[in-house]
TrEMBL record:
One of its GO terms (cellular component) is plasma membrane. It comes from Bradyrhizobium cytisi. This is Sugar ABC transporter permease. It is found in: Cell membrane. Residues 82-295 form the ABC transmembrane type-1 domain. Keywords: Cell membrane, Membrane, Transmembrane, Transmembrane helix, Transport. It is a multi-pass membrane protein. It comes from the Bacteria. Belongs to the binding-protein-dependent transport system permease family. Its main location: membrane. GO terms for biological process: transmembrane transport. PANTHER family: ABC TRANSPORTER PERMEASE PROTEIN (PTHR30193), INNER MEMBRANE ABC TRANSPORTER PERMEASE PROTEIN YCJO (PTHR30193:SF37). SUPFAM superfamilies: MetI-like.
Length: 306
């Protein structure tokens, strides 16, 4: 091949590569622009506001550095919100996981009305939780609520469920579990459908012919990726809980049900301490990113092992 031909081929390669690069930038550009406008710039703005003493509506502000974060660590209400959020997540995630898997196994083992049961359990996830919170408020009313009336009818003690410090957080966790259960159920049903029948046949040949044996040797190991995905989704939803707190309890009684997002809302839009609320938003964002990073690492580890 002549030197002139080599030069021509190189120029063609450069031109082709440049065209492909431009096409790639053109395709990726809109998505990068939206990420910049909708995520990166707002996150940077929140971080900047967190370093100020800005009050919503004020025309002036002062740079105070990390003073807001220092104040948060000494704030009893913030510590309560952090503890309540962690406790809420620890109640909602395991209960949703166990109940979702149990219901999926029951529905899949049945022979009729599978579509009906799926729709019934998925409806709470599709319904506006703000509307359903009002229904729950009526059910849990201390005097005329159906829950207390049923308990009184069978001779069991009643309670003011949403106004007692000992019951309010577990009740909110019950509502959160009920709302996320449909999603977990549908995901587990999809995972059960994807398990090959040959695995169960092979397990039966190896002696795992009992229900518990099949569950331990085939079903649960096969559902591990689905279970991890359910944990990730439900955990992120639980950390972002706001509407049921705002509608049902307002964080009370005595901050027994205040959570991070409600604390952010209260500081920013009720007390108008926007800089302080932005500091809570930064901490919330750091927690969510850390959890997502840990869960992604776990997923990648399991994928590489398999």
């Amino acid at each position: 091949m002549s030197q002139q031909q080599v030069v021509v081929d190189r120029e063609l390669w450069v031109e082709t590569g440049s065209a492909e690069a431009l096409a790639g930038y053109a395709l990726v550009g809109p998505a990068l622009f939206l990420i910049l406008v909708l995520f990166i710039l707002p996150a940077g703005a929140v971080l900047a506001i967190a370093a100020t003493d800005w009050h919503l509506g004020a025309k002036t502000l002062s740079f105070i550095g990390t003073a807001n974060f220092t104040s948060l660590l000494a704030d009893r209400a913030f510590r309560a919100a952090l503890f309540n959020t962690a406790a809420y997540v620890l109640m909602v995630v395991p209960s949703t996981l166990v109940l979702g898997l149990s219901l999926a196994l029951l529905i899949e083992s049945g022979k009729s009305l599978r579509a009906f049961y799926r729709a019934i359990h998925f409806l709470p996830f599709m319904t506006s939780l703000a509307a359903m919170a009002i229904v729950w408020e009526a059910l849990l009313h201390p005097t005329i609520g159906l829950v207390n009336q049923v308990l009184a009818a069978v001779g069991l003690p009643t309670a003011n469920w949403l106004r007692s410090e000992t019951t309010v957080l577990p009740i909110l966790a019950v509502i959160g579990t009920w709302q996320s259960l449909g999603l977990a159920l549908v995901l587990f049903l999809a995972g059960l459908k994807a398990i090959p029948q040959e695995l169960y046949d092979a397990a039966e040949i190896d002696g795992a012919d009992g229900l518990l044996d099949r569950l331990q040797t085939v079903t649960l190991p096969s559902l591990a990726p689905v279970s991890l995905f359910v944990v990730i989704v439900v955990m992120l939803r639980a950390f972002a809980t706001f509407d049921i707190v705002q509608i049902l309890t307002k964080g009370g009684p005595d901050d027994a049900s205040v959570m991070l997002l409600y604390a952010l809302y209260r500081e920013s839009f009720e007390y108008l301490r926007t800089g302080y609320g932005a500091a809570i938003a930064v901490i919330f964002l750091v927690i969510v990113i850390a959890l997502a990073a840990i869960q992604t690492r776990v997923v990648n580890t399991r994928t590489s092992r398999s």
